[in-house]
Amino acid sequence: MGDILATEADLLGMIKEYLKFEDFEETVHSFDKECKKKGKLVSKPQGSTLRDSKTRVIQKDLLSSFDDGDHKVFFELWTDNIPSEVKDTDTEAQSLESYLHIHFTIFPLRRHPGRHDRAEFEERISHFKQYLETRGAALSQTTKFLPYYALPFVPNPTIHPSFKDLFQDSWIPQLREKLEQFLSVALKPSNTPRLLHLYVSFIETSNASPHKVEVIQQLQLQLVESDRRIASFVRKFSKMKADYQSLIGITAELVDSLEATVSGKMISPEYLQSVFVRLFSSQMRQSVVQSTDFTRPGTASSMLRASIAPQRPKDVPMLPSLDYEKLKKDLVEGPDRLRSLLLQALCWRLTRSLPGEQRDTVLQAYISNDLLERYSTKQKTVLHLIRSKNEIVRQYVARLINAFASLAEGRVYLSQIPILLKLLTEALRTEEKDSLARENVLVALQKLSLRRSQQTAMIADDLIGWLVDELQDSDCLSDCTLQYSAALFMNLCLRTKGKGMCAENAKHVLKVLTDLLGHENHEIRPYVNGALYSILCIPSVRQEAKEMSVEEILRCYSKEENPDLNRQFEFIIKLLNSDLDTEDLLQPQPRELSGESLLTTEYLGIMTNMAKAKRKSTPLTQPSADEPLQRPVTPSSNRHCESDRAVPFVQPQVYTALQLAQ
């Protein structure tokens, strides 16, 4: 309620500010009188005060960096805060900017005459040259500034007669005074009322031309493509670095071997075989490397030469471009038969394209032409076909969405469509259980759950409750539905809100999960274990699990001959029996040391410190493969979910926390 009153007072204050600006004196008087009569608060206009305060801070920072000779900070503030029309057209501003560049260039010479840092001065000279070649080029035609163009080429400007004025004691104070006068005018805030400013901003945003929107979209696509290429180059660089380090070690051994032969020592064939196996292991399959006889003369050298021989690039045919506007029109307005054929063809174009450049091009074409109409405000779009009365149309829309969700850039595109999740979860709840449309929707949602923003929306839509009810009747589900449902449930349980929703109905959730452990489809067990491990972090769920004898159930299943699964069960049982920090009655006082900070501040030992330093110097290790899954994943392709039932080119994906923030 307090926020609403504050907002109302602020709005009334803006109205009063605007009326005063337009000199509606009688209206202002009546406005004040009626507000007092109704008990309405009217805030004082703070816009100009805030702007004045911000202006003073900027001006102070500019003058401070001028005094300190910090050219980087100064020109960053100058660029961001001095209006372009002033910098680019006002001759006085251009003249002042030139003198400022001169000031920062010679600053080291003035600060430490005769013993300045030569490297720092050279760096500033380089910046000054860059300025002279760009923004300062126009001033080369003026007699006043022409001598300063020789500054970068004079060995010692302090003794050169052309620059003696620059080193007079009065030069800096005079320049600073000019700067202050300029800033007081250039940074003078506008007196435009906030209400008028908001209105103008809204109009400008509303009237953004389609061309501008298209340019923004293209820039977004270019950014995504650049990120993809950067990631690819990073992977290639990491592999090259690893190969280089391995090669250095092998080269050193071969040099040692050559030195040994010079001194008359023999090199055994077995030793050569082991060296060559290491040399080629990163380029060939292990089985091929192990079966190759490298001791036969010429074998290793021939393979080395072949490995660096240039390969003829394969020509990848590009698919012809399409008229996407006509496509979208026929998809929305055409008969169901044509819609189904078009959706099938679009899905095939993506799923049957060659991996790599061809598939990337197809996906980029779909996204750049906004095939699913993410920016559309129309009542009926391509995505709304998921509500079609025709089952075939609904099925192929779901397949197309699933195909998008199978690729990282496709998931980025889908996540930008506000209505998508609502349509998908609606279809999930209304389609028949054995429907192919429902299955593809479920698979698409599972892949979208790799993205954090989509997880949040799914949890808010109570998808966890739906999944628990779905998994309760696991014997009636297809293998594909069962596997993707379990994986989706685990991904959502990894979030704090997801765990909280499970805790609200802990007994039912634990019953469903423990029943799933006995299902004949063992491929779902990693997801079930991951979900159990996640929700058992909550004390109330652990308590419920103990009352249900979950530990005994896990030990019953751990008798099977599966050591990896048994170790996962042991991790879960260990968590189940933990009661860490559940009864911490002692609470630290404000500013009182406690816990690890108390130990490491007052009682840090030598060995502890050394271990800590050692850990910092080593890269972070990945969680053990024996532990239950603790990060969002998507199932790998299998025979039950292949072909058009689910996109065949989806590979197993495990995402780190950094990748999930994308």
UniProtKB/TrEMBL annotation:
GO terms for cellular component: centriole; ciliary basal body; ciliary tip. GO terms for biological process: cilium assembly. It is found in: Cytoplasm, Cytoskeleton, Cilium basal body; Cytoplasm, Cytoskeleton, Microtubule organizing center, Centrosome, Centriole. This is LisH domain-containing protein ARMC9. Residues 57-188 form the ARMC9 CTLH-like domain. It comes from Sparus aurata. It comes from the Eukaryota. The keyword Cytoplasm applies. SUPFAM superfamilies: ARM repeat. Its main location: cytoplasm. The gene is ARMC9. Residues 614-645 are annotated as: Disordered. Residues 458-577 form the LisH domain. Keywords: Cell projection, Cilium biogenesis/degradation, Cytoplasm, Cytoskeleton.
